[in-house]
Specification:
CATH class of the largest domain: Alpha Beta
Strand content: 15-25%
CATH topology of the largest domain: Rossmann fold
Helix content: 25-40%
Largest sheet: 7 strands, mixed
Number of domains: 2
CATH superfamily of the largest domain: Response regulator
Number of helices: 15
Length: 408
Amino acid sequence: MWRQSVARLATAFSLGLKRHGVAALLIAGGLSACSTVTAPPPVAQGPQPGATSASASGSSADASETVKVALLLPLTGPSAGIGQSMLDAAQLALFDMAGDRFELLPRDTKGSPAGAAEAARQALAEGARLILGPLFAAEVAAVKPVAQNAGVDVLAFTNDWTQAGNGAFVMGFVPADQVGRVAGFAKSRGVSRFVVLAPRTPYGDAVVSAMQGATERLGAVAQVERYDAAVTDLSGPAKQVAQGVGQPQAVLLAEGGNRAQGLAAALAANGVSPQQVKFLGTGLWDDAQQGTAALGQEPALVGGWYAAPTPQARAAFESKFEQTYGRKPPRIATLAYDATSVAAVLSRAGGAMDRKAMTNPSGFEGLDGLFRLRANGLVERGLAVLEVAPTGARVVDAAPPSFDVLGQ
């Protein structure tokens, strides 16, 4: 019954944007950093979850009790623009998804670890059962012990996977799922000899580790080539690949934007032809601000593959955000929407905010597609595989409709 209940909840995210007009959302404008946001009485909401969901999660929450959830963001300081946009996205989720007994407690971290810890203490003192955010890894590290002492979990927006665990879930996009997905798709298309070309950075380390793990599972081979992250002449790293032992069938580039373009051009110039070798990317290629169309302006990258959420899944959100607030949202704004939606949906299911409720294996369907929170604190995502084209990107392998399809 619990599995069926959450399966119904998983569909609510994609339906939420269709339920409310923009006019209803405009009343949320001008919210201050110290406000308490309470959802209005639900109008034209979708089906309510199954009656057993609260007991199945082990929660004894009173269904009539107001559920308070903290939202920690940098609302002042250098990153205030990003923080405000994420707060705006959370408000869209609030009015799309929440019932009338849900309160969002936005608190300003000031973009610092000390500010984040103090914001967490304030929200917890006011009765927050769950913390959404903060944004930066150092802030998350400061908030975790505060939340642990209160027995409250954290859905953090950082993409620093090392912050996962001990009650903290990393909602940000991390390379493990991306690399495994695109490598698996390439293997299904006959690729068995990979090269991973990565800078000597923590991100490069993570990409290399993910590719080595993926190729081991797939029965493929991965050659590793590293280079100094500060190098400006990209012909050097390209020659490392070109002069390596054997011709690879695919090269994974652990770079995005201009660096990915430069590496691809240098590889092609040194004999690693995109007509013979498939170029693969990570989630860094899924940059809505530069856009995959920008990547496609480099001929060597056209036809390259990368794994990312299906762009169409968040298109309605981006359109509504721009219509409501008069500006485009940053790419990571979807994280705030999805995290707020998780909290809102669980609050409507009886107020359950415990780990069992959040980590059920069926997961949720959010703006960035299928995802589920794992016991280790990492968020597993069901990703599509996209192909770079001169005018953008096209989906060449759809995201899975459920984790059952993945056999997990």
